[in-house]
Design goal:
Rossmann fold, 134 residues, 5-stranded parallel beta sheet
Length: 134
């Protein structure tokens, strides 16, 4: 299972994004389940709507509804961990720390993200660092 962050999902939709080709090639070669914390959905849909328009937002929601991505809801303990992580990493916002909390709970080591700056600094409880792809 691979966790997926906002940047990768946005880059897949935006052909002009610097990460588009790289993320498209990576997704086409992946056979693992792609898991998206529910907190990522509002961020992705906002960016798609604001930058690419309502049609892009609707296309993304259709793909989620069709089961192309697995969505994971946060648990109370995830929220408690988010609070701890936000104290430890004040430069990270709620969406990013929620991804780390889900990774820890599910013992996931691989994160698909374009955000190397933030996620490269995080030391999750279950591993020394997250393996960042693509």
């Amino acid at each position: 299972m691979i966790l997926v962050d906002t940047g990768v999902l946005y880059a897949l939709a935006d052909r002009d994004d610097a990460w588009h080709r790289r993320t498209r090639a990576w997704v086409e070669g992946v056979s693992e389940l792609l898991l998206v914390p529910v907190t990522v959905l509002p961020e992705v849909t906002y960016l798609l709507h604001a930058r690419l328009g309502p049609a892009a937002e609707r296309a993304f929601i259709r793909s989620v509804a069709a089961g192309e991505l697995e969505i994971d809801a946060l648990r109370r303990r995830d929220l408690e961990r988010c609070s701890e992580l936000m104290e430890r990493y004040p430069e990270l916002g709620f969406v990013d720390v929620s991804i780390v909390a889900v990774a820890e709970r599910l013992k996931i080591r691989t994160l698909a993200t374009t955000d190397r700056r933030h996620f490269g600094r995080v030391a999750p409880k279950h591993t020394a660092s997250l393996h960042l792809v693509p």
